[in-house]
Amino acid sequence: MEKRDLLYEGKAKKIYATDQEETVWIQYKDSATAFNGEKKAEINGKSVLNNEISSFIFAKLKEKGIDSHFIEKLSDTEQLVKRVSIIPLEVVVRNVLAGSLSKRLGLPEGIVFEKPIVEFYYKDDALGDPLINEDHIQILKAASLEEIEFLKKTALEINVFLQELFLSCGVKLIDFKLEFGKDQDGEILLADEISPDTCRLWDLETNEKMDKDVFRRDLGNLTDAYQTILNRLRGESAHV
Ligand code: C5P
């Protein structure tokens, strides 16, 4: 497998072509950004942790029959994934009120929902990734009604799996963001990453934050928090 031209550089990853039409080479970066890129920092070791955590979760999902773009981890900071064309939607699942929804509703973080909430955001930096509804998605031609239903159903299945996985190591899954893409056959696949950059994760007993809010809100050392998540997932310090 050969790494070829840089295709795209995002806030947290670089994407390279390979010598195969159907794959791309992802390089995780140490950059951390928040608030639509307004807050930025280089955090040594973040790329290694997110690559490891995301690879671990994608592999576990595959065991459960939920396929993603993930093929294999190539190095500490790199993954080989299927080439997909990203659907310009961020699919957010929420189990507990936090973040932007807490602000929008004017209610305190921590309220547990009776059932999970699914939201869609339009991936457009210039617009600031606005919250949109199913009618808007169809006007934008980002996805058909059938595809929207598929995205929701899959996001909720992933939520059940992730909640269980994190709970088994003493972590509450508050909310998370998914991205999906279409492969060359038009099949929708889970893409991007699942890591503490894209999830809110709170300690089951203390509610300590172990995710990107540590960076967003200056709560302490980000890599220590991500390392704790990785160790717990690996069962090295399994919570009983
Ligand atoms: O900011 P908000 O509360 O809407 O975020 C909901 C969830 O989606 C959080 O877990 C956050 O980390 C994730 N998210 C993300 N990328 C974005 C926006 C939100 O990973 N661009």
Automatic annotation (TrEMBL):
Domain SAICAR synthetase/ADE2 N-terminal: 6-232
PROSITE patterns per record: SAICAR_SYNTHETASE_1, SAICAR_SYNTHETASE_2
Reactions mediated catalytically: 5-amino-1-(5-phospho-D-ribosyl)imidazole-4-carboxylate + L-aspartate + ATP = (2S)-2-[5-amino-1-(5-phospho-beta-D-ribosyl)imidazole-4-carboxamido]succinate + ADP + phosphate + 2 H(+)
Superkingdom assignment: Bacteria
Pfam family membership, one: SAICAR_synt
Keyword Ligase among UniProt keywords: yes
InterPro entries: SAICAR_synt/ADE2_N, SAICAR_synt_PurC, SAICAR_synth, SAICAR_synthetase, SAICAR_synthetase_CS
Single annotated GO MF: ATP binding
Keywords noted in UniProt: ATP-binding, Ligase, Nucleotide-binding, Purine biosynthesis
Enzyme class: ligase
Biological processes per GO annotation: 'de novo' IMP biosynthetic process; cobalamin biosynthetic process
EC code: 6.3.2.6
Pathway(s) it belongs to: Purine metabolism; IMP biosynthesis via de novo pathway; 5-amino-1-(5-phospho-D-ribosyl)imidazole-4-carboxamide from 5-amino-1-(5-phospho-D-ribosyl)imidazole-4-carboxylate: step 1/2
Family per record: Belongs to the SAICAR synthetase family.
Protein name, entry field: Phosphoribosylaminoimidazole-succinocarboxamide synthase
GN (gene name): purC
